[in-house]
Amino acid sequence: MIGDDDSSKSLYRWRMPESLYLHIWQTFWKPPRPLFLYLAHLAVHIGNFYKPLEAPAEVISKFKYIEDINRRIQAAMTSVLDDSVGAVFKALHAKNMLDNSIILFVSDNGGEVNPEFGGHASNYPLRGKKQTFWEGGIHLPALIWSPLLNLDEPRISEQLMHVTDWLPTLYRAGGGDPADLGPMDGVDMWDAFLGGSPSPRTEMLQNLDPIYGVSALRMGDMKLVNGSTGEGFDFWYGPSGLDNFTEHTSYDWVFKESSPVEDVLRENGMWIAQDPDEVYQRNRIKCKKPVPEEAYSSCKPTEKPCLFNITEDPCEYVNLADIYPDMVKMMMDKIIEYNATAMEPQFKPKDHRADPMCHHFYYVPWLEPEHYTECDYAS
């Protein structure tokens, strides 16, 4: 929460982005010009060390059935994010823009599970967490919705895709030729989306960190991991919170208080998820439980690279490096090739004057004259 200068009011910071976003859009956009909107939401990111998790009390109270208070707040933060998505969707509907819109909902990294960092997320049953190269850190939720996809029913994509692919894909969907953009790392996925065909991407560099000596590479079904970030969270941390959900209760639970998105889509004859539970169940990642004992010891990436078939083994239980040494060598050679063109990290030192505690708990351009202060709270 943040307050104004006289502390007589407070505003939940994570409700501000869509309000500002909608104000700018509705004030300055002039149709029929094309429009690109990007909303980088703060929720459900952890906050500062003195208040890592925060949500409005009335939202937290909706999740009293979650015993762990930190997980309860995490759920409330997710709920606020969900409300924000609904607000943006309704605004697009009010402007009669849905028929010609492409809407993406994409996460940037896996959740933080280390309580020392304020993390109470869950990536289970996937391995690892945020800031690791395991699937729990990089295998992320992503959704694309658009009438332009011409779908009669929801489709679960198994196509390999990297964040850099969005630029040429959206440029193509908007009528442009990605070749006009010049050399780039991304590949155009639009035809693959329309036809459900295999991804044109067959290779993906997933990590190349010269500070920790960490690297990870995906080629087809195979993934190579080499080194560790030193986070100490290289295993499996659960539960997911979904273990007590049955196939026919999750939909009622999610939509029990209605959904603005569903309401709009049904009103316009665009709701194609006839059985959301069936889609949800197909989309869940399911792995053997409990984690096999040998999975903890078979891969020691700080000693030598590990190899996994991610398609068959998304939870990274079975290290295949000793079975396919030629594949390991080929993939390590490719990593060396990538590394030859990598640039040195350009980190800036921390500036304690930027700490929100120095600015009434706001993030501001702290070097500007109106905000400058020699505050030393965090020094």
Automatic annotation (TrEMBL):
The keyword Glycoprotein applies. Keywords: Calcium, Glycoprotein, Metal-binding. Belongs to the sulfatase family. This is Arylsulfatase J. Residues 32-173 form the Sulfatase N-terminal domain. It comes from Araneus ventricosus (Orbweaver spider). InterPro entries: Alkaline_phosphatase_core_sf (IPR017850), ARSB (IPR047115), Sulfatase_N (IPR000917). Pfam families: Sulfatase. GO terms for molecular function: metal ion binding; sulfuric ester hydrolase activity. It comes from the Eukaryota. Its cofactor is Ca(2+).
